[in-house]
Amino acid sequence: MADYLFIATLVIVALVVIVLVIYLIGIIIALRKAGNHLADLAGGLQKIEQDTGPLAGHLTTINGALDTLLGGLSSVNQHLGAIAGVLKL
Questions:
Q1: CA distance 40 to 32
Q2: The whole model's pTM is what?
Q3: Alpha helices, DSSP H only, in the chain?
Q4: In 10 A of CB 52, how many CB atoms?
Q5: What is the rounded distance in angstroms from the CA atom of residue 60 to the CA atom of residue 64?
Q6: Which end of the chain has fewer CB atoms surrounding its CB within 10 Å, N or C?
């Protein structure tokens, strides 16, 4: 009877070890895939940083032009307000 219990214990321990090994291999595979995806993501973010670098100069130019446009449109708005006042609109 003791031999059967010993063999059953060895079989159960072996099954537990096999299941743990399978899960650990699955975790290793998942972590390697995640590492590859993170490397791709980091490369993509660096590319975005390089591509958007020149935007600061362009946006400064556009902002200056919009300030000039704002002055002109404010003047037009005042003139239209005066015309509306004359026409009592």
A1: 12
A2: 0.51
A3: 2-52, 55-86
A4: 9
A5: 6
A6: N
